[in-house]
Predict the 3D structure of the following.
Amino acid sequence: MVFKVLVVLMLFAVIGSLFSSLVFLYKDKGEGSRVVKALTVRISLSILLFVGLLLSLHFGLVS
């Protein structure tokens, strides 16, 4: 049950990072590096979530 809550929280973090990069894109008008940093965080969270789901499936935490 705890793992499922963690997965949902990670998904919200990914969506939040994607939304923040959109806001930075409009505010900076392509002049800053905040968009790249926010998208890097989003990709890192997505990869971490994917690897975590694969490992939990392998070890039988999620059926």
About this structure: The two ends are 12 Å apart (CA to CA). Helices lie at 2-28, 34-59.
